Q: What sequence folds into this?
């Protein structure tokens, strides 16, 4: 349909062929409702195995904002808020879904220059300590949870050391640690990454494995490593409008994604291409906003360069840097085609 | 997979073959996000045409509870509640989703014997009048909307006269009228029905056309006949976690359902079989709980009869009538197979 | 100012003279804010002593609806609702304050004829059992608390046996038991009453001792018998706008009310007069709606009688019984004057 | 009771003698409930006159957080948030009361160095423009209101020009303008102030006149200049637990405060003393954090100076400036005594 090159985002395509083909085969299926079916059970077991966490509870929801709002509301008490980077998805692009549930997002500035999108463990520790020492803290929102995304909204990664540190700070201060993994496949596949699913299950109280941006049509898988950490989560999902009648639709997609390492594979493809493109940007002597370890690349362009590149390729506007320069995002995904990458590399080479 | 006869509900099967096949063809699709795509636009236009309401706004959400919670919260002001039958889905089986949004469900008893599941227009009028005349009404929840379902949770139907009357009462009293059409296909196809999509668009402020139980994998289509009746509904959807990233998935399904009259067809099949089964129940001299005009049939069985029937067919427990008798529900759907109906008719004949 | 006899309600007058005089003496007072002062501490200790519950936590709030909304929201989890009589104050006259906090009020019909305003323990047990046995209960609001008022909105009383039974049912089913004591002084002073403050502290998880209708200018005292039953209640009060800057204002009033048995005394005066008036109603052969054990009396009048009585005395309309008869409420209070009672008795005698 | 000098805050004392004496005279009063009484009506009329706004609606609530939460929730639509300085009371010290109502506080940094506590009109304009131009703004919280406090939490003042500018920006962008006047008396009495009650009524959509910190025992008066700007505010108050049964208690206090210019007088006393103390701080060569135009003074002390001053006077810790220096707040009020000021001036003189 669209014949222009498209590197604008990682959710413009339907789903991995293996998922589409499995879906096409469901004409004769008859399944009980609300995720109480054997396909979901199979998918859950594969995820438990991948996380090396046999007791984990796994739930499937339909999207990231829904997931974040439902999980955060279910863990926090009414008087608690959630700490997040000011660039965190829940702080910026969820239309107040967390506040709709009654909770404040307690923002800490990200490190725009050194680690865009990331929450410094030291900053979290300081925040919690300042709150504890404030004589008026009974009049303030109590931090009850830390929210991070892996990779972040800027495609950056927390290291295992940082995750360990965050986990220690959280658990020493009775905070829950929750990780938004909307693009987790692209973290897991990054050569720069040293945080495994098993690490997440060991260090977090809840995290989700993104499907929508990682090869599925839609759907996200919540992992709660310690069973009953969130009592009655099923009812909470229902109350939040997050319980799909034909829950097996979600189970089926994750069952495919967690068969034969497909989830890591979809990430690996995207990362390989991203790495080639990032190299081409450097060769073309176009400045990177920062060096990206995952599938989202950020390049600084002047107006003429932007106009030229956008005439050839769909990419995303990210930020106005100053009067004459913008940051643009180039995203690869599980669906990026070899030939499209070649074309983009050529275009970039021509911009030198 | 399941070889026992299954008449337990209308959402145990995947989707109409036309939808599965269209989905299987999406491998090469590239679409913008959040329902801003041409497939959604096409589906919306077909729905507008079917409703004879060219200016209607149409939005696609993923499920019924999500739809009800989002629409009701978006229309009501903070101090208003929604009038519903005490058997209404929002009163009973949505885990408090309406109250989560801050609104009381103001229940009126349904007419268990004469019109199960239905709200009498006269009862609504009396409720509103009593509220208006109560000297303390400023200390009470103000009714701001009437919620009905068509067909109701019992499969019964509002007549056009009743809908007219409800619409008049609502609009004379500054109430919105909202219709939950989770199973609307089965109403539209019923010989007993005289309410068209066009009537709904003319008489209601919002209503939804159910997909999940009517041939789709998932999805419901909200119709707002008068544009801008709910300002910023897109953002409200986002805030409620009800905005699907790949919104075209929903548009695609409704595009198929509203092509060549498929939506009415899926209802017609189910209704034809339901009628045959209801006749067979009567022939078998098994008492009906009441005569049903749609795809859900309610039969009264003693314990021995129940045990026998359940050994042959999956059906749903509905209600304990007294010590020795229960009401059981038999549901047909768009996916009911001719041969399964034959088998059920035989079983019923043997129960005489 | 108003020279007509006034038996319309128990909150038309300012406060007991002992409170007014103590307030007039505060010109030189300097107190820390938010209830952290020695006057509040003194009042709390007197209440703890009166309840024979030395470890109880006590908090002062400004009104009944605020109290109910804050306490119920603080105890319930997001997916839970509160069981109440359909005549309960939270069900009818709090403008949806409980739903504003996200919780459903799960109503059970009161026994209009045998015990108006009361929740039968057996009905609560049946409700909880029905919920537990319902195969769909994960899609329903989970009952998390029972709310009763003592005396009820009709002035009736729970017996100690009933309270014991409710407490047992609640605690066997993981429900909290909360008692709204807006008019508690009138219960404690009733000859028909066998439930003491000590019983309430032993059997409930939280209850409040009403001030506004029982001799104070304003204010209600929450008693939480087991410390830390509601963690961070101070912050929850703040979040609900229920934390008074000069909290000592409330402490001072309860300090007076719980000195030298004043709280019981204010009830006793009202009850004595109520009993005389109720006797006069019977002598006048005016039908009682039911025999009341506390300070609210309910008399059935025809239109002529109503007109006559209202020309002489301010009383409250309660209910339209049928075309020609109404139920009217006559209320005494801590402030009822001897001479006003005489006048009313004469008027009633003249109606024979 | 407390014999140490106390300049710690402006709400440690009871109320102006004129209020205490009027309260002591209420023993024989009989008033209808919920603010529907003639005393409230009288107070409202005096406030309307003082604002030169005869059509204004006036409501009395019991405290500032309650007021802010109730007003903000009543004006905003569910998908809207409120813009405030990051130092605004609603951003910091209301325990998430705004978020409890479902709304995000959209913070803009105050100008710590040039105008502490204040929101720059230009910053508000930029925020609104950035929102409007953001291609993703439908996924973001829509700003629906601007909240400022006059004086601010730092005691600084908006000029009439600034208020005009804010009002223009708001109304050009469909935002409401709401002013928190918890300490309004101290603004009105400041020689530096050029914003009158009449200006507030002309330029704002809602503002409140603080009582608790300005001579009353408790209570705040909301002014809504254009009638019906907030429909059903009475019911909204009830829903928020903000409706006092004996509303006349609040009316009475404002009736006194708005008789014979008392409200301005209480401010004037405090401001005169504050000015003397600020001069003494300068004479003592103690650095001011900034020059304050109202009753809150901010002085920078090293640890030794702090220890010394706190041994003589109760003052408030405000901020840790660096390792060795703190900012401390000295507050005067309507109740500050001449002789206490003399003693403080002497102490300060001795610190040179």
A:
């Amino acid at each position: 349909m669209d014949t222009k090159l498209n590197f604008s985002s990682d959710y413009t395509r339907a789903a991995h062929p293996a998922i589409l083909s499995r879906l096409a085969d469901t004409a004769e299926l008859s399944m009980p409702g609300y995720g109480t079916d054997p396909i979901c059970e199979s998918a859950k077991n594969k995820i438990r195995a991948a996380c090396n966490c046999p007791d984990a509870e796994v739930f499937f929801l339909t999207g990231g904002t829904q997931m974040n709002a439902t999980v955060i509301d279910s863990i926090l008490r009414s008087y608690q808020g959630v700490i997040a980077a000011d660039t965190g998805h829940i702080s910026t692009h969820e239309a107040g879904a967390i506040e709709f549930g009654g909770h404040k997002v307690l923002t800490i500035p990200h490190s725009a220059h050194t680690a865009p999108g990331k929450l410094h463990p030291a900053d979290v520790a300081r925040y919690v300590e300042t709150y504890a020492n404030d004589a008026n803290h009974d009049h303030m929102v109590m931090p009850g949870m830390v929210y991070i995304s892996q990779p972040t909204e800027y495609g950056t990664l927390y290291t295992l050391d940082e995750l360990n540190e965050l986990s220690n700070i959280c658990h020493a201060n009775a905070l829950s640690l929750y990780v938004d993994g909307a693009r987790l496949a692209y973290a897991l596949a990054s050569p720069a990454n040293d945080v495994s699913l098993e690490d997440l299950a060991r260090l977090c109280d809840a995290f989700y494995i993104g499907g929508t941006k990682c090869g599925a049509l839609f759907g996200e898988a919540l992992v709660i490593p310690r069973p009953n950490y969130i009592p009655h989560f099923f009812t909470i999902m229902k109350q939040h409008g997050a319980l799909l009648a034909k829950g097996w639709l979600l189970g089926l997609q994750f069952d495919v994604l967690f068969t034969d390492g497909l989830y890591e594979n979809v990430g690996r493809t995207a990362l390989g291409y991203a790495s080639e493109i990032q190299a081409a940007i450097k060769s073309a002597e176009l400045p990177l906003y920062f060096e990206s370890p995952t599938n989202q690349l950020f390049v600084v362009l002047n107006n003429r360069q932007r106009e030229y590149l956008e005439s050839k390729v769909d990419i995303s506007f990210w930020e106005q840097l100053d009067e004459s320069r913008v940051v643009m995002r180039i995203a690869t995904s599980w669906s990026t085609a070899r030939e499209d990458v070649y074309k983009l590399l050529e275009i970039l080479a021509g911009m030198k």
Summary: Chain A has 14 helices and twelve strands.
